[in-house]
Design brief:
globular; 256 residues; 2 domains; mainly alpha; 3% strand; two-stranded antiparallel sheet
Length: 256
């Protein structure tokens, strides 16, 4: 999957757009399926329509148009749910709003990162690299040095030592990668970028673990044998994408 993403970024960027749309639509389906365990019934159809709408607006219209897609999706969720009557309306539209923001809205920042003409593919690549460094560095450090649980009621395996390892490894790796791959970036840009993305990645992982614990499910689905659902692989990425977009826009701005 990672290889397909990299190939799409540097060979045919329209394929990357298709992959992002497919990923957020699958994520929406998994989330709707997961919340149904607690009897919530967010309307699936408007969420599946809103996912490509948000990604498309981000790709073609930039950050200024993306909120319009979210607003349109939320309105469609609210209106669509009218057909099922009054009982549990608030519960269902609240779940729908959470899913709309959590999956397609945050996922659309991949399109915002990728579209800029000369270096969009590199911006996505360094973001993926930072997330991988964070996950790998945190895991390795936690295995060998982890003693103090970070959030035992949410994710017992995570430790403060592992979190520190995530931040250090990602900051150091990004301090090397950004100046090599992005024009106008210097080492301290990379260090700030890496630290910010690592923190967001860990929080994203913990956030999805909290949702799963609250729902009482182990995985979002069984779509990927041995790994759970696609959302179980995207949890670190979803919060990292807007963080990377914001940090890079400030430190290494581009013009569309």
């Amino acid at each position: 999957m990672g290889g397909l993403v990299v190939v799409s970024l540097f060979v045919w960027k329209w394929l990357f757009l298709g992959l992002v749309i497919a990923a957020v639509m699958i994520g929406v389906w998994e989330m709707v399926r997961a919340v149904s365990v607690q009897k919530a019934r967010p309307p699936l159809v408007p969420l599946l329509l809103g996912a490509p709408l948000m990604v498309g607006l981000a790709w073609f219209g930039g950050a200024e148009r993306l909120p319009l897609g979210l607003i349109a999706t939320l309105l469609l969720v609210f209106v669509w749910r009218f057909a099922d009557g009054v009982p549990h309306y608030q519960r269902d539209v609240t779940a729908g709003a959470l899913i709309a923001v959590y999956v397609p809205f945050l996922g659309s920042f991949a399109a915002l990162l990728a579209y800029p003409a000369h270096d969009g593919s590199v911006r996505v690549l360094v973001t993926i690299l930072a997330v991988v460094l964070s996950d790998t560095g945190g895991y390795a450090t936690g295995v060998f040095l982890g003693k103090h649980p970070m959030a035992p009621s949410v994710s017992p395996a995570k430790s403060w030592e592992g979190f520190a390892g995530s931040v250090v490894w990602t900051g150091a790796g990004s301090a090397i990668a950004l100046p090599l791959l992005l024009d106008d970036a210097v080492w301290w840009h990379g260090a700030i970028f890496g630290v910010a993305v690592s923190i967001a990645s860990v929080l994203g992982d913990l956030g999805e673990s909290l949702i799963k614990r609250d729902l009482g499910v182990k995985d979002m689905s069984n779509l990927l044998p041995g790994h759970g659902g696609l959302m179980d692989r995207l949890d670190s990425v979803l919060l990292a994408l807007p963080t990377a977009y914001a940090v890079l826009a400030f430190l290494v701005p581009w013009s569309r």
